[in-house]
Amino acid sequence: MKTYRLKIKPQSSFLTPWQADTIFGNLCWIMAWREGDDALKEFLEQYKNGNPVFVMSDGMPGDLLPSPAHLSLAEQKEKGFDAFKTAKELKKVAWLSQDVFESVRVGNLEIELSTPIKTFKTFTTLHSSINRLSGTTGEEGSLFELPEYAFEQNDISIYLKIKDGWEEKVFALFKDLSLTGYGKKKSVGKGAFEIIGQLEPFDRFDGFDEANGFMSLSNFVPAKNDPTDGFYKTLVKYGKLGGEFTFCGKPFKKPLMMLTTGSSFRVNGNIKPFYGRMVKGIAPAKLEVVQYGYAFAVPVVVSI
């Protein structure tokens, strides 16, 4: 697998976070519409067998990269108020520049604290539900809020590890996605974006001899034999079916616990390009549906 970066520029605010599993789901619908259900089933079978043709990161703001989960714990080895205060401040550091990230990746956990970097802003918009009988709004309790997001950076970076021969197809899937929009409310213009340039080869995540672990650039679900000695946070996703499946009557998926972007683990032996797995049986109404749960792994030194 070779590593690439795809840069996209939002053309509107969005309601759906740029997380790898959601992006993957959107791309699967693009494939189904382009090539048919049989092609999609064959494609997903490789993922279910632990042999993905590409894995991806979450969408990153500009050139920034997430802070590893073990960063703030380095200071906690020391005792005293100053060490505690520094560790508390490090917990607030969500994003790092590429140079600082590279320094942390090779084991240097002493970084200079600065003002938190602004990545995206959140705001809410008011909407009114429509009475399906009268076709009107304005009834009591019809108003509701929807959270929206907008990146402070000019663009979003998505990192991909792709098997040889799949580069053009992966780029074409993203190109078609840019024509439909991403996530919720795309039919009214939300989640609009354009692709900047082409797939850009990216070698800054290449391995090095001192690496003893990996850090994930995506939320993921560990596989049975994945490493367990590490540092991580969790989130619970309450997913919903997309595409035509939205109208199946019961579009909601089961709650799914995932390890978050930035989770880091020690590894015995060689570090793989990805970890995690596909999750089966996630949608009671559509048993064939699977949830993407692979980790985009970056070799790191986990020194604490």
Structural overview:
It is a single chain. The strands form 5 sheets. Strands 1, 2, 3, 8 and 9 form a 5-stranded antiparallel sheet that branches. This protein is 20% helix and 29% strand. The protein has helices at 20-35, 37-48, 81-90, 98-105, 167-180, and strands spanning 2-10, 54-56, 60-61, 65-66, 95-96, 120-128, 143-151, 156-162, 193-201, 213-216, 230-231, 234-237, 256-259, 264-266, 274-280, 290-300. Helix 1 runs antiparallel to helix 2. The longest helix is centred in the N-terminal third of the chain and has 16 residues, at 20-35. With 304 residues, it is of the alpha+beta class.
Task: List key phrases describing it.
304 residues, alpha+beta, 5-stranded antiparallel β-sheet, 16 strands
Mean pLDDT: 84
Instruction: Indicate the overall shape.
Output: globular
What portion of residues is helical? Answer: 10-25%
Largest sheet: 5 strands, antiparallel
Q: Please tally the helical runs, counting DSSP H or I stretches of 4 or more residues.
A: 5
Our estimate of the beta-strand percent is 25-35%
Instruction: List low-confidence stretches.
Output: none
Structural class: alpha+beta
Give, in order, the helices and strands. EHHEEEHEHEEEHEEEEEEEE
Radius of gyration: 20 Å
Alpha carbon gap, first and last residue? 29 Å
Number of strands: 16
Summarize the structure in short.
It contains five helices and 16 strands. By secondary structure, it is an alpha+beta fold.
Topology:
Elements: E1 2-10, H1 20-35, H2 37-48, E2 54-56, E3 60-61, E4 65-66, H3 81-90, E5 95-96, H4 98-105, E6 120-128, E7 143-151, E8 156-162, H5 167-180, E9 193-201, E10 213-216, E11 230-231, E12 234-237, E13 256-259, E14 264-266, E15 274-280, E16 290-300
Antiparallel strand pairs: 1-8, 1-9, 2-8, 3-8, 4-5, 6-7, 10-14, 10-16, 11-14, 12-13, 15-16
